[in-house]
Design brief:
Layout lengths: L4 H9 L3 H22 L10 H14 L8 H27 L9 H4 L4 H23 L1 H12 L4 H8 L3 H20 L1
Helix pairs in contact: 1-2, 2-3, 2-4, 3-4, 4-6, 4-7, 6-7, 6-9, 7-8, 7-9, 8-9
Length: 186
């Protein structure tokens, strides 16, 4: 199959397994970069990059929806899908922390300091709630946050993906960060 990437991805979303297989090597490097960016830094969930990458691609390939505008549209959707996978993973981990699969611990095991990763997970869950509130008010600002924070995009890459100027992306990024900080402090 030698179709353009956007057509391959659209065909894959319609259930064409051959198109999905042909598109995979073309999108793999960029999806890997997005997954690595999402799993880097404090509060990173205990997911493997490959697991996040594969789950994100599967969700996108199986999700019905409007045709893709271009490859940037696909990668923006991939960033969003990976965000949801990470948040779902953190929620499951939090639920287990609060009683799911309860196990008795010895005194030595209980003394291990596991508070820092849990605090980071709680901050990411709070950030997700704040981002949902921002999406309800200003979807354009939320798109910038998803690409910058969850997708690991630079300002220039974000501007290109969203069809905005670099200056507009900087303004949106500044406004979004201010909103999120106010929401998280409240």
């Amino acid at each position: 199959m030698s179709l353009p990437l956007t057509e391959l991805l659209d065909a894959a979303r319609r259930g064409d397994a051959a198109a999905a297989q042909a598109a995979w090597p073309l999108v793999y490097p960029e999806l890997r970069r997005i997954a690595r960016a999402r799993l880097r830094g404090p509060g990173a969930p205990s997911l493997a990059t490959e697991d996040l990458l594969h789950e994100g691609f599967l969700r996108l390939a199986q999700a019905p929806g409007a045709p893709l505008a271009d490859r940037h549209h696909f990668y923006a959707l991939a960033s969003k899908a990976m965000r949801h996978i990470v948040i779902d993973h953190l929620r499951r981990r939090q639920a287990q922390r609060h009683g799911g699969d309860w196990q008795a611990l010895s005194w030595d095991t209980a003394m291990v300091d596991a508070a820092a990763p849990e605090a980071d997970a709680e901050r990411l869950l709070a950030l997700d709630a704040a981002l949902d509130a921002l999406t309800a008010l200003e979807p354009a600002l939320a798109n910038v946050v998803e690409l910058r924070f969850f997708g690991g995009y630079t300002e220039v890459e974000t501007a290109e993906a969203l069809g905005l100027s670099d200056r507009t992306v900087r303004r949106h990024w500044t406004k979004a960060r201010a909103f999120l900080l106010m929401h998280l402090d409240a």
